[in-house]
Design a protein that fits this description.
This is Methyltransferase domain-containing protein. Residues 183-204 are annotated as: Disordered. GO terms for molecular function: transferase activity. With 297 residues, the protein is α/β, with parallel strands linked by helices. It is built from 11 helices and 9 strands. It has helices spanning 3-15, 23-38, 40-43, 55-59, 73-78, 92-104, 151-159, 178-195, 203-209, 218-227, 266-292, and strands at 63-67, 84-89, 112-116, 138-142, 168-174, 230-237, 242-246, 249-253, 255-262. Helix 8 packs across helix 9. The protein is globular.
């Protein structure tokens, strides 16, 4: 684990005790949840249909990877539309909160369970390398992408965990907010050198210190999705800004939702090409038969 990732781990461990306990935090979680539910069809996932007449629809396993899961806001939003959920987070405390919430809501560990892990490490741990953490129908990162050290690598690694051709990656994060972070980082340096000689900064400054990217533009996200083996890029910006009442003051940020579908594997692409070739050859044969005057299609 890199030094930056370790800083994030410690910061979110410290934050877990008060995470999602304040009114503005509840409102933000609900805002993201509503946005996802309102865009279920747009996301392009073959969701479960528990009330369907077709037994195949009822029994089909729809798998969600809630990455950087925190206490489970994304799981709560999409849980009714899937059958199996796996969460991953680098914070041990967040994972504990997630699993407590899942069990208290009546879900079994087979239905929803989170583990500590880092998919973007040089060596991915065995507990997140097995079949349980492969072939997801959808993977979602909810407001954690700007904390990732290498977002382009993150998209590539997450794409590898999706079902080829159908698996969807969804990233919910902020449009650029560089000026705000620059002010907070300056505040952090000031506190560190004058008010906190022991090196302990305020919580808001500490969280600002763990922000690696000050938001993302559409062009940046679209390029990273394409470079990561995703296609069918989609982009949507929420009308209502996110409002956060931090210790350093009230902040407003615009939220976007980016989506893409994992491209076919090399074998899948070859199979598609071969199928198209067969269709073309069949059409040419039909034309030859008609020209002979003795055969019709």
């Amino acid at each position: 684990m890199s030094a930056f990732t370790e800083a994030n781990r410690k910061a979110f461990n410290d934050l877990s005790a008060t995470y999602n306990t304040k009114p503005w935090q509840h409102k933000l979680s609900q805002q993201v949840s509503d946005a996802l539910q309102q865009r279920r069809e747009w996301l392009g996932v073959a969701w479960t249909k528990p009330n369907a007449d077709d037994d195949d629809d009822k029994s089909r396993d729809v798998r969600l990877l809630d990455y950087a899961c925190g206490t489970g806001a994304i799981t709560k939003a999409l849980g009714p539309s899937v059958t199996t959920i796996r969460g991953i987070d680098i914070s041990e405390s967040m994972v504990a909160k997630y699993n407590e919430a899942a069990l208290s809501s009546g879900l079994t560990s087979e239905q929803a369970h989170a583990v500590v892990g880092d998919l973007f490490a040089a060596q991915v741990a065995p507990q997140i390398s097995g079949p349980e953490f492969q072939l997801f129908d959808i993977a979602v990162i909810g407001l954690g992408f700007h904390h990732f050290e290498d977002p382009a690598l993150a998209i590539k690694r997450l794409a590898e965990r999706l079902k080829p051709e159908t698996g969807v990656l969804v990233i919910i994060d902020f449009l650029p907010f560089a000026d705000e972070v620059a002010r907070e980082q300056h505040q952090h340096q000031h506190q560190h050198s004058h008010e906190n000689p022991d090196g302990v900064a305020g919580r808001s400054s500490e969280m600002a210190h763990t922000i690696k990217h000050t938001g993302f533009t559409r062009a940046e996200m679209e390029k990273m999705f394409a470079d990561g083996g995703m296609e069918g890029f989609g982009w949507n910006v929420l009308n209502e800004p996110a409002v956060m009442e931090m210790e350093s003051g009230r902040k407003e940020r615009k939220i976007f939702i980016a989506k893409g579908r994992r491209s076919a594997t090399a074998w899948g692409k070859l199979r598609g090409w071969f199928g198209g070739l067969q269709e073309a050859m069949g059409g040419q044969m039909g034309m030859m038969m008609r020209a002979d005057g003795r055969f019709t299609e």
